[in-house]
Amino acid sequence: MQIETIVKRNVLIVYLIGELDEYSAEQARRKLDKRFEDANFECVIFDMSKLTFMDSTGIGLLIGRYKKLYKKNIRAYIQNPCLQVEKILRMSGLYEIMPRLSNSEVI
Amino acid sequence: MNFKNEMILKFKAKSVNESFARSAVAAFLLPLDPTLEELNDIKTAVSEAVTNCIVHAYEKGEEDIELACSIDGDTVHITVSDTGVGISDIEKARQPFFTTKPEDERSGMGFTLMETFMDNLEVLPNQPLGVIVKMSKKIGNKGG
To answer: pTM of this prediction?
Structure first.
């Protein structure tokens, strides 16, 4: 999978692109943590519009990133998941810690 | 007429094969004309079962995972088996959020997702070693 980031008005938008599973998780974790080191942003939005598949390994990864960001007092949000990803996010309760932004809130 | 078909795949317990496994099952099921949601549910369940084998069954080396899939009418049966270390307490392992590897950022959601996305899930010890995960799902449940 690929990860692209842009900063817009103090918001770091992280585009997760491709499939997030056990195979891709380790590299994704490293890339994200490296990007989060230099915290020149106030909140993070994970944009999932180009994430075509995710399993529970992705849930573990997102919770891990949430915890790291939380320690820096940085909030995290999710936007634009596809149906497959949305179902897993909802079922796992992830939205309780990383709320989903509705379309009107999308930056 | 009752449509029947079967396939068996054997592959190394490497995470690179996860995508292959779930895509192969999805392709095999296409004759049943599943909805996108049904396909996604099954792909997710297969991915979870295969991930379990890779992460937990074989800590020393990459041995084989066997993935069998059969179609009986409108029902899909999937069996994922390994010959690894096994699960000491299957009932406990099936609890939501239970994981033996929280330090690796494991969510403990694997069996819960399999159970939710499929109609039936059985987790059994393999003989002499390992785990067998059996799951099934009826395609076209919602009456289309």
So the answer is: 0.94
